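Residues determine shape. Next comes a sample protein:
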Amino acid sequence: MFFDSEYERVYTGSFINVQFLQNILQDGGINSITRDDMKSGMAAGFGGGIPDHIQLFVKKSDVEAAVPIIEKSLS
């Protein structure tokens, strides 16, 4: 059974890009969280994930506002 999260992935990329986007979203009043499978795997004692493949998530209720901000910021 899949976990039904209140968050949705809106971007995947480098740590630097994700940090940049988090700051832009925060300035717009949108909170976000990240997921780094590589870092999590290393902390747990096993490898895993893809280097520089950080996922950025926002609440599903914020996706409609976040996506245009992300697209504009990366263009």
In short: The domain at 7-74 is CATH 3.30.70.1530 (Alpha-Beta Plaits). The mean pLDDT is 83. The beta strands are 7-13, 32-35, 54-59. The longest helix spans residues 15-27.
